[in-house]
Design brief:
The complex is a heterodimer of chains A (about 230) and B (about 100). Chain A has about 230 residues and is an all-alpha fold. Helix content of chain A is about 60%, strand content about 0%. The relative contact order of chain B is 0.14. Classes of the chains: A mainly alpha (about 230), B mainly alpha (about 100). At the A-B interface, helix 1, helix 2, helix 3, helix 4 and helix 5 of A face helix 1, helix 2 and helix 3 of B.
Chain lengths: ~230, ~100
């Protein structure tokens, strides 16, 4: 492929990556936003293939495809209006955000294009993947292994964070019921969540679960003495 | 296609990502903005590796680290969204502003 065609392909992919990146934040549909982000990533992956980083470009494509499908799933789980049936705009500090984004784009654009970078292009287009493989299992093996260990730690942390069961209690969030958001409405949480304990405010008032210490059981019994719902936790 | 063009595209991607991370209310949309910012950084690294590193494979190792950062950010972000939703029934930043000064 000659340089002209590479240039044309680059600009097509670049414009598509930017356009889809912008669509992420203007579309009403949350699922569509996920797939727009996926399209942006796919185009960046294609640019990376043009930049001769074929391995990372294709890896980005595979990784982001799975990740964005998971993200679409989360959108359906957590967001109202995930299909975009109603127009909506869930933004805050909008003008400052636009100004910040433009300042960052302009600032980085100027700061990155001003310096005279050393002109040392890749000498030969073949063998970059082989060189990467030898590097990962050779000189950069410590980096490679550290990334692997970090990803393992990430998996464990994700399970700990998202598990519904805590280490010491049946429910991970026991003792961490938040204080009422509005002082005039002390029972707002309890009313919003009838399944919860009524004394959630009291727990949060003295610092949450960590303060219970070894007397957690005693306190639980004392607090819940007359609580009809206590049977669920026993 | 030259280095300056790639760097400008990367800068604009990062700017769009920052706009999203600052402006969106939903946690998941904020994560999308962060991902877009890492995406721009990835593209800038790839461009610099292509034209200024004489093909040194260590540049690609940096790209793989950026990919790992993306994966970690996403995983822990989702885990925290689940944890926050379980305790506060909240999916937007405005619902968890108890500590806001």
């Amino acid at each position: 492929m000659t340089g002209v065609w590479v240039g044309i392909a680059f600009w097509i992919f670049a414009v598509a990556a930017l356009w889809f990146g912008w669509r992420v934040f203007v579309t009403d549909s949350m699922v569509r936003a996920s797939y727009a982000l996926l399209a942006s990533f796919v185009n960046v992956g294609a640019i990376m293939v043009l930049l001769l980083a074929e391995y990372v470009g294709v890896a980005l494509l595979f990784m982001m495809t799975v990740e964005m499908v998971v993200m679409a799933l989360f959108m359906i789980m957590f967001m109202m209006n995930s299909a975009g049936l109603n127009p909506m705009q869930m933004v805050h500090q909008h003008r400052w955000s636009i100004a910040g984004g433009m300042a960052m784009a302009g600032g980085f654009g100027i700061a990155l294009t001003l310096p005279s970078w050393p002109d040392r292009p890749i000498p030969t287009a073949v063998g970059t993947i082989r060189a990467l493989g030898l590097e990962l299992l050779g000189g950069s093996m410590l980096v490679f292994e550290s990334v692997g260990a970090t990803l393992l730690a990430t998996m464990l942390a994700a399970v700990v964070l998202s598990s519904s069961r805590g280490r010491y209690t049946a429910d991970a969030h026991e003792g961490s019921i938040p204080p009422p958001l509005d002082p005039d409405e002390p029972d707002s949480w309890a009313h919003a969540e009838p399944d919860e304990d009524d004394d959630g405010d009291a727990h949060a008032g003295h610092g949450g679960h960590a303060d219970h210490g070894e007397h957690a059981d005693d306190e639980e019994h004392a607090d819940h003495g007359e609580d009809a719902e206590h049977g669920e936790h026993g | 296609m030259n280095l300056d063009a790639v760097l400008v595209v990367a800068a604009v991607l990062t700017g769009i990502g920052l706009y999203g991370a600052l402006s969106q209310q939903s946690f998941v949309m904020i994560m999308m903005g962060l991902e877009l910012m890492v995406n721009g950084a990835l593209l800038a690294c790839a461009g610099l590796w292509r034209w200024t590193a004489a093909g040194a494979p260590q540049g690609q190792v940096l790209l793989i680290m950026a990919l790992a950062v993306m994966a970690i950010e996403m995983t822990l972000g989702f885990a925290m969204v689940v944890a926050v939703y379980r305790t506060r029934q909240a999916d937007v930043t405005e619902s968890v502003d108890s500590l806001k000064g």
